[in-house]
Amino acid sequence: MEDGFIAYVGTEIEEEEIKNLLETLCADKMEWERDATYQSRIIKGAGAIFGQVIDCDTFRQKVTLPALYNNLLYVASYDYSAFMKIEDDFVGDYDFDYEYPHILIPALLKDYDTKAFHLLESVGVTCAFASYDRKTRSFTAAKIGDYKFFYGYTKQNHEIIFSDNAKIIRELCGSAKDFPDDCFYRYGTFYTFKKPQEEIIYVNPEDFDQKPFENTTLIANIEKTFNESLADLELHKKVDEFIDQNLSIEVKKRLLKIIKQEIQKYNIQGKVQEQMTQVSQQLGEKITEAVAKSLDKISIPTIHIIKLGETELGRTNAELFHEKFEEVLSLVQLDEPVMLIGPTGSGKNQAISQIARALGLHMYYTNNASNEFKLTGFIDAGGTYRDTEFYKAFKNGGIFFLDEIDCSDPSALIVINSALANGYMAFPHETIDRHPDFRIVAAANTWGKGSDLQYVGRTALDDATLDRFDNVFFDYDRNLEKGLYPSEQVLRFMWSFRDAIETAKMLHNVSTRGIGKVYKKEINGIPTETILRVNVIRNLGQDDLNIILGNMQNIDSNNKYFETAKSLKLVNSR
Fold first, then answer.
1. What share of the chain is helix, strand, coil (3-state, %, to 5)?
2. What's the 3-state SS for 394-443?
3. Measured at the alpha carbon of residue 382, what is the angle toward residues 45 and 432, in degrees to the nearest 5?
């Protein structure tokens, strides 16, 4: 399979720039191979752009890449001969066609999730692969076996890009990094799939402290062994282990096991019991203090049980939830139309996605209703009905999520009023009854009374529309931010900056989404000044920045973001 694909999710790079790069690569290949013909192919959707160079003369390219498979955008560069060696009993019930072996990759990913990489690696398949689930908005990439695969970050927003061609990455990012061997990327982190039961965060070996442990006393060895035992567990595994059990009992059991191992190792007799008691007390105090501090610094993932009376209908996975999650979940479960009203980037979309999963319902998303046909659909010139997300939710059941409702045409929203009031709806091609599992949730930045100084493009909504929705104020949740972005430096600065803006009554925003952007760049080593200019200061003038810095409270003078912000010289002014 010829190299030359790109997988990108973001806003900084335009489709035209990617297309030009791929066409240049095609021209280079045809100049090198005079009798070959190449062309580029691009598929985009839900903020993702996937492109690939296609060998037009290869019969296997009847089904071209990139492709869309069960709502999954994907591209791949692979060793065709390795796929040919897969035995029939491995592919099982899959409709496997050896002319199009790359179809197997997303099929396995859909059924086995990240365990698919281990399955492919175990039978000798080698490939570089990237996918984007347009429904869950998860970006995944994997390198299986000895294959070329690279990644880089865009120059301004530092959005990640994957390609099997280093030249593409260098053109877009300035430099290309080798994708780590036997690893996959998801949710901003690299993991190994060599041990499918133990997802281990990939780190650079240079980050490890290689100094040997020199103290060999009994107390030191017990403490070292215990600390290593806890350190070997990832945070989420510690939470899973402790969440349903008594913490002190679990710690005592682990401590007793370690003590027994040390006694057997050194064959200690005589006064060992007295020494063990002393050690146990000392470590117990340290552990209790350490756990208390850790729990105070993190937000522990929780499980929500959904009930109807005393009957359990379902439960969520252990996740981090917004403080208003239970309130909104209860209202949606009671079949109340809900409108989440809050500042931009506060996590409204994520909360509705979690609620849909908790209730076992599909989420249908529409970004404002600019006209009636965006809700009802229409019949095109050929006589074919073009449906909408609202139609599918109303007919089949599910949560219809109308984002930015305060950007909608008020007359278009009469469609929703009618559907909610009557329990049936006349669409252009048929009249249908509302499905029993149909739910509706809207999100807005204003209270539906029209534009304000901060959200100038909003419209005033009809009182009849507003009256049908239960309003829930959805503000920034600091406990959620603490759990999602665990960096004391970032959080203390961003929270203090946000409070200072509010004190100064300025039209500037520090959102949960904005904190996430800062945290992402922080852990990837982006310079502090760049982070501040791109994601925090943005369009502020020097005078405004000075006022905000002067109003900042509860901020450590050693905070690198605070110190850097004080040294910035801005040229723009409001």
1. 45, 20, 40
2. HHHCEEEEEECHHHCCCCCCHHHHHHHHHCEEECCCCEEECCCCEEEEEE
3. 75
Q: Give the chain's radius of gyration (CA, Å).
A: 28
Query: Measuring CA to CA, which residue among 521, 481, 480 is closest to residue 497?
Result: 481
Confidence label for 236 from pLDDT (cuts 50, 70 and 90): very low
Question: Is 26:115 a contact under the CB 8 Å cutoff?
Answer: no
Mean pLDDT, rounded, for 15-27: 87
Q: Under CATH, what is the fold of the domain 310-473?
A: Rossmann fold (3.40.50)
Distance of CA 177 to CAs 102, 147, 427, 485, Å?
25, 14, 52, 24
What average pLDDT score do residues 495-523 get? 88
Residue range 148-171: mean pLDDT, rounded: 87
Nearest to 2 by CA among 163, 171, 180: 163
How far is the C-alpha of 139 from the C-alpha of 151, rounded, in Å? 13
Residue ranges covered by each domain of the chain:
5-205, 218-297, 310-473, 485-567
Question: Nearest 5°: CA angle at 15, between 11 and 18?
Answer: 110
Q: Is the bond preceding residue 436 a cis peptide, omega within 30 degrees? A: no
Residue 172 predicted with pLDDT over 50: yes
Strand order in the sheet with 150-153: 38-45, 48-55, 5-9, 160-163, 150-153, 177-178
pLDDT at 306: 52
**H or E, element range at 311:** strand 311-315
Domain 5-205 and domain 310-473 have a common topology: no
Q: 342: buried, middle or exposed (CB in 10 Å: 19+, 13-18, 0-12)? A: buried
Q: Is 197 helix (H, G, I), strand (E, B) or coil?
A: coil
Query: Do 74 and 67 contact (CB within 8 A), yes or no?
Result: yes
pTM: 0.46
What percent of the chain has pLDDT above 70? 70
At 250, the pLDDT band (50, 70, 90 cuts) reads: low
At a CB cut-off of 8 Å and minimum separation 6, what does 546 contact?
Answer: none
| Closest of 184, 167, 188 to residue 176, by C-alpha | 167
Q: pLDDT tens, 40-96?
A: 888 888 788 999 888 776 544 445 788 887 778 888 887 777 666 665 545 555 555
Q: Do the bridges between strand 398-403 and strand 363-367 make them parallel or antiparallel, or are there none, so unpaired?
A: parallel
Q: Could you please report the per-residue DSSP string of 342-364?
A: --TTSSHHHHHHHHHHHHT--EE
Structure-token pair, residue 383: 């006589």
For 379-406, what is each residue's pLDDT tens digit?
Answer: 989 899 999 999 999 999 999 999 888 8
Q: Specify the CATH superfamily of domain 5-205.
A: Aminohydrolase, N-terminal nucleophile (Ntn) domain (3.60.20.10)
Report whether 62 contacts 102 (CB < 8 A).
no
The pLDDT, as a whole number, for residue 244 is 45
Q: Above 50 in pLDDT, residue 200? A: no
CA distance 352 to 340: 10
CB 441 within 8 A of CB 402: yes
